[in-house]
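User: Hand in any protein.

Assistant:
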Amino acid sequence: MKEEDLSLIKRYPIVEYLERKGIKPVRRTPSYALYRSPLREETHPSFKVDTQKNLWIDYAEGRGGSIIDLCMRLESCTLSEAIRCLEQNASDNITYSSRKDFVPNNSQPVMAVNGARRLIEISDTLPPHLQEYLARERCIDLEKAMPFLKCITYEVRGRCYQAIGFANLSGGYELRDNKTFKGTIAPKDITPIFTDKIINQIQPTCVFEGFMDFLSFLSMKEEVTSACLVLNSVSNTAKAIRYMNSQGISPIRTFFDNDDAGRRAVQEFAGAGFHVEDMSIHYKDFKDLNEFHVSRVRERQKHKGQIQAHMSVTVQIQNKESKQVKHKIR
């Protein structure tokens, strides 16, 4: 990587990076932001970001560094993976800073004003490597998921990328590739789904933190009988509250991550007057709904494999006994 590219990544604001992950400061001044550490659970804030130098320090651990060091810790990834993830996020931050930069149809590609990113194509067909990622790594039922997904092809500084795209209410897209990259084509917004079911309101509206959790929910259910809403980040909680109030929605079931940000979002909905059923209790030993879903699928596959292996051994024994009987008859 060129030195100027690495310098660009290190200038990507840590506070914005944390904001995109739904992590907000408990105190903010012109020179720093103070957080409860995103690296562990804690009551008193001990994680500080120097917004002028764009560096962080965790006083409880006595460790700190640049945004790259932080990304490696939060994403549990290698240096090269962190650079790749931040490279695209940094470009996303520079390029798509306003709604006018994005055209939500396939009629023409979009060129960002500063030339940093060029949207090449929006397609209904995901390439094999992205389908394989969804099916194998995330255990997503492709037949159920595909109506909600696009393939976004774009260019960043002469390099071409493809990502899974999930549209939001304002015409933007949430992006996810088959490695570590998560990003957004602005504007960032919530995604209401199956809104026709709000009319009868028999079931509580299901609210998901991210679209991978929503796709997991689809894959787990034979039929979805309730309206759904995807936050696309807990930072969109206030937008979701305004939208649901305008739609007259009250009872909700939340499927958020088992972390501080997810728990705070549940409290925000409850504080806004919603009757909240926190569904994370059903996957309390897992990071999120998708991790729980993958675990269940893997367990079923393992059990099925054991049954097949047992049946194979049984057949082999029966065949052997049959041959022995034939020998005795002779």
Remarks:
- Residues 114-187 form one domain.
- The longest helix spans residues 289-329.
